[in-house]
Automatic annotation (TrEMBL):
It comes from Amphiprion percula. This is Signal recognition particle 14 kDa protein. Belongs to the SRP14 family. Pfam families: SRP14 (PF02290). One of its GO terms (cellular component) is cytosol.
Length: 110
């Protein structure tokens, strides 16, 4: 997993979307990140670790290549605007859901 800066993450995510446009998929996950790199011990030591500020960890993968970034609270608005524009631009390959007519449903229930 490659930890990138926010701008380089968005450019790499654009490349992943372009590579998977015809076939394949891109999986994106988002979770709260407190800055820890080691797991929390289960028993014994009860360290009270308080993060300085809240952060988000974003990960993206196409099955072969994995990228990630950490977004701090100061950069959230700027990153969210760029991220939402990127998603809007690359979500045009979705298939529309077929709508079933009401007449078929009413005939089936009678």
């Amino acid at each position: 997993m490659v930890l990138l800066e926010n701008d380089s993450f968005l450019t790499e995510l654009t490349r992943l979307f372009q590579k998977c446009r015809t076939s394949g998929s891109v999986v994106i996950t988002l979770k709260k990140y407190d800055g820890r790199t080691k797991p929390v011990p289960r028993k014994g030591h009860s360290e009270s670790f308080e993060p300085a500020d809240n952060k988000c960890l974003l990960r993206a993968s196409d099955g072969k290549k994995k990228i990630s970034t950490v977004v701090s609270t100061k950069e959230v608005i700027k990153f969210q605007m760029a991220y939402s524009n990127l998603l809007r631009a690359h979500m045009d390959g979705l298939k529309k859901k077929d709508k079933k007519s009401k007449s078929k449903k009413t005939k089936a229930t009678q």
